[in-house]
């Protein structure tokens, strides 16, 4: 696994979230994916979803062109 690419960490996060049901490990993977690529909308949305499920405060981060999409997703989760 290339430690500098976002996608493998996103896929690993989905594995932990959906197959292993380990939300803490999934959150770490999604966070790493998002840290590596702030335009990775899938990782950003999955990270927000897990933060809501875990009862953590959701931070809105600047994700460049995808920022509005992630903000819209956050609003839909809370509404």
Q: Largest sheet, described in full?
A: none
Shape, principal axes of CA atoms: globular
Given helix and strand content, the structural type is: mainly alpha
Radius of gyration: 12 Å
Distance between the termini: 37 Å
Low-confidence stretches: none
Topology as a string of helices (H) and strands (E):
HHHH
Please indicate the percent range of residues in DSSP E strands (runs of 2 or more).
under 5%
Question: Percent range for helical residues?
Answer: 55-70%
> Based on DSSP secondary structure assignment, what is the total number of beta strands?
0
Average pLDDT works out at 80
- Give me the number of helical elements: 4
Plain-language structure description:
By secondary structure, this protein is mainly α. The N and C termini lie far apart (37 Å). α1 runs antiparallel to α2, α2 packs antiparallel against α3 and α3 packs parallel to α4.
Q: What does the secondary structure layout of this molecule look like, with pairings?
A:
Elements: H1 6-19, H2 23-36, H3 41-53, H4 67-78
Helix pairs in contact: 1-2, 2-3, 3-4
């Amino acid at each position: 696994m290339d430690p500098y690419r976002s996608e493998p960490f996103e896929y690993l996060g989905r594995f932990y979230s959906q197959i292993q049901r380990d939300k803490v490990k999934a959150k770490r993977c999604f966070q790493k994916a998002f840290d590596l690529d702030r335009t990775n909308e899938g990782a950003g949305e999955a990270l927000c979803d897990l933060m809501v499920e875990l009862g953590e405060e959701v931070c809105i981060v600047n994700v460049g062109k995808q920022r509005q999409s992630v903000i819209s997703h956050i609003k839909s989760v809370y509404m």
